[in-house]
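Example complex used in Figure S2.
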Amino acid sequence: MKFIVAFLLCLVVHSCLSEKVRYDGYKLYKFTPRTAEAVQALVELEQGDFSEYNFWSSVGPVGIPVQIMVPPYKISEVHHLAERVGIDAEVMMENVQDYIDAEERPATYDTGFGWERYHTLSEINEWLVNLRDTYPEVVTLIEVNATYEGRTILGVKVQYPTSNVSQSVFVESTIHAREWITSATTTYILNELLTSTNTTISELARKHVWYFFPVFNPDGFQFSHTTDRMWRKTRVPHSVLCIGADPNRNWDYHWGVAGTSNSPCTEIYRGPEPFSEPSCRVMSEYIDGIADQLLAYISFHSFSQLLLIPFGYTHEHIGNYDKIYQIGLKSAEALAQRFGTQYRVGTVYETIYPAAGSSPDWVKGKYGTPIVYTYELRDLGVHGFLLPPEQIIPTSEETLDSFITIFKEYEAYETNNVV
Ligand code: 0X9
Ligand code: ZN
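Predicted assembly (419 residues):
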């Protein structure tokens, strides 16, 4: 009897099946609500318990598109709803599984740690250990313990012995498990800081102490490789049927005031209390230890091509908003120069949707760190989280251009007080 119950539970949550979750016939829609009633309908879908709609972006105000993955058996229901309440619907992907399959078959395939395919957690961690072994004078390995499943969150500190700098830059990526392009891009940037012969990059590398944590949510990231490519949250079981909290809603700064849910089955579940998620708690403790030297905190998400400024919990602007906005514009301009990729710049609250309890809000709010940005990398929803591996290098190159520009422009501003 016990076995049967356990088996049935496994079937329902399909998290303990060894087979991968498939998304055959699932469609990705871009829904644009035209009325307040339409926004309300989307909020109800997002907040609903056991909702089978998977939100690829959260609900914002009227006119702001929301990307939702819809299972085949919900397609006619969603069309009726859209018509009834006033939502424009556009199909972005006819069959999500096709995109997952394509991602697994890159056109070229590097056998080592290159940037032509996506890597697993153990490959990324091995690469970080290797960096320490290759550059022992410069790279220190940081092991932060531990996640819910007992994993170490691995990071590196890069500090050139010649540099007499005290200001640090902290880089966070893949706090959302399915956003694979983010750790691919930050490992590329880290590699460039260590190996580039371009003097702008090598000089910048020597100007700061760098902390890189490519995979902030290793439990979720591992699960997105082994079992469910669309996994976003942590792996802490918060209810019988629903696992995980949104690690970017769990930080202890105006926790839960806007753009979150108290329902464990939603993608934006904030957790039962601030820092309920071990991975967020241990990283916050680590950051607390180095916060007084922090010049910048940059987090990487995907997708939507945005350079975001705190806050997400309020419409109020940060103290140095004007400077950070102007630098953001220059940075987006630099990004566009290489391939023409267009980014928008603005606060989280005003540009996308309210979202409280994120790590950048916590860092900015608690420590007043001068430079805090969040990247939402490529694309605009054609591939969404399933960005083809062929786009890793171009995405990384253009992002590096803008990343460098942030520091160049900030320095120029500090020296001349003009941007
Ligand atoms: O909703 C989020 O957590 C982020 N978007 S995503 O589609 N990657 O999930 C945006 C959060 C940005 N928040 C702050 N920088 N404060
Ligand atoms: Zn994200």
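Residues 176, 179, 301 surround zinc ion (ligand 2) (CB under 6 Å). The chain has two domains: 21-103, 111-416.
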